[in-house]
Amino acid sequence: MDPTPGMATARIEAQTEGESRVLRATGRLDTEAAARLWPTAMKAAEGAPIVALDLAGLEAIDSAGAVMLLTAAPDAELRGAPDHAVALLERTRKALGTIPPPGPPAPWHPITAIGRATVNRGRDTVAGIAFIGEAVVTTLRVLTRPRLLRLADVLRHLDEVGTRAFPLTLLLGFLIGVILAYQSSIPLRRFGAEVFVPNLVGISLLRELGPLLAGVVLAGRTGSAFAAELGTMTVNEEVDALKIMGVDATAMLVLPRLVAATIAMPVLALLMNVAGLAGMTLIMGTLGYPWASVQSQLQQWLSLQDLAGGLFKAACFGLVIAGIGCRAGLSAGRGPRAVGDAATAAVVGGIVAIVVMDGVFAVLFFRLGI
C-alpha cells in the first residue's frame, strides 16, 4: 500500500493472556518495518506457541509484513484485523504453503566443505564403477546375442569418429613432425648428429606422441560430441523413455560408441605417425639429408614392436575416452547448463585419463623391457 502521512511507526510485541501468548502488531507494517522488526518477531515466537495475532491497531501491511507474521505464528488466530489485512494474510499463507521461501545461505565451513566434496567424489566413483560393470555385462550379453549390437549405429559412429577426423589428424601429425624435426635438429647440430633426428622423431611418434595426440583429438572432438548427444537425450528424458519401454540403453547408446572408438583410434594413431614422419622427412630434405638416409635410420632404429605397442595404447585410449564421454552424457543433470557441463567433463576427464594411462604404460613397458 502507498504510504500515507500520519501513519504510526510499526511496533510488535508479545503479550501473555493466562497461559496463552498473543502477538500484537500496530502501525504500518511494510517492508522496511518488517526488516527492522524481524529479530523481535522471531524472538517473540520462541518458547510457548503464539495462539493469536492481535491486529486491531494495524494501519497498513504488505507482503513482507505478512510473511514475518506468518513465520512467527503460522497457526495463530487473527483478531481485529482489517479486511485488506485478512485477505493479504490468507493469500500469503497459501503461497507459503505451496512454495516455501528460500532460507538464508548456510555459512561456509572448511571441514564441512571438504566432507561434502569427499562424499560427492565417492558417489561419483561408485557411479563410475557401476557404469563400467554395466558396460561389461552388456558386452558379455552381446557376445551371446550379437543381434543386440546394431551394426548400422557402429558404422555411423565409425564415420563420425574416424573418417571425419582424418583431415585434422593428418594436419596435426604433419605439423608435429615438422616441429619435432626443427627443434631436435638445433641441439643435435652442435654435436654433428643431425642424422639421428629421424631416430628421435620416429621413436617419439610411434611409441608416445602418435597415440597421445590422437587421443587428445578424439577427446576434444568425439568425446565431447558423445557427451553432448547423450546429455541432450538425458535432459529430454529420452533415455528414461527407452528404459521404460524395456530397451537396453547401454547396448543401444553406449556399446556402439565404445566399439567405434576402439576400432578407429589405432587408425587415427597410424595416420598421425605417417603424417609426422612425412613432415620430418620434408624438413630433413631441407637440411640436406636425402630420403635414402632418412629411410636407413628409420629401418635401423624402428621396429614393429614400437608400432604395435603404440597402436595397442591407442585402442585403450579410444575405449576409455568413449566410455568417459558416454558416462558424462548419461549422468547429465536437468538444468540448462547440463549439456555444457557434460561436454566439459568429457573433454577434461578424457585428456587426464589418457595422460595417466600413458604414464602407466610407460612404466609397464619399461619394466617388461618392451
Structure, explained:
- The chain has 370 residues and is an alpha/beta fold.
- The chain has two domains: 11-98, 2-Layer Sandwich (Transcription Regulator spoIIAA); 130-368, no CATH class.
- It is built from twelve helices and five strands.
- It has helices at 31-44, 63-72, 83-98, 110-144, 151-161, 166-189, 197-235, 238-244, 249-286, 291-301, 304-330, 338-368; strands spanning 11-17, 20-29, 50-54, 58-61, 77-79.
- Strands 1, 2, 3, 4 and 5 form a five-stranded mixed beta sheet that branches.
- A hairpin with a 2-residue loop joins strand 1 (11-17) and strand 2 (20-29).
- Helix 1 (31-44) packs parallel to helix 2 (63-72), helix 5 packs parallel to helix 9 and helix 6 packs parallel to helix 9.
Secondary structure: elements and pairs:
Elements (H helix, E strand, L loop, with lengths): L10 E7 L2 E10 L1 H14 L5 E5 L3 E4 L1 H10 L4 E3 L3 H16 L11 H35 L6 H11 L4 H24 L7 H39 L2 H7 L4 H38 L4 H11 L2 H27 L7 H31 L2
Parallel strand pairs: 2-3, 2-4, 3-5
Antiparallel strand pairs: 1-2
Helix pairs in contact: 1-2, 2-3, 4-9, 5-9, 6-7, 6-9, 7-9, 7-10, 7-11, 7-12, 9-11, 11-12
Number of domains: 2
Major sheet description? 5 strands, mixed
Strand tally is: 5
Output the structural class. alpha/beta
Task: Sum up the overall morphology in one term.
Answer: elongated
- The first-to-last residue Cα distance is 84 Å
Indicate the mean pLDDT.
86
Number of helices: 12
Strand content: 5-15%
Report helical residue fraction: over 70%
Q: Work out the radius of gyration.
A: 35 Å
Run of helices and strands: EEHEEHEHHHHHHHHHH
List low-confidence stretches. Answer: 1-7
Pfam families: MlaE
Domain STAS: 10-80
Protein name: STAS domain-containing protein
InterPro entries: Permease_MalE (IPR030802), STAS_dom (IPR002645), STAS_dom_sf (IPR036513)
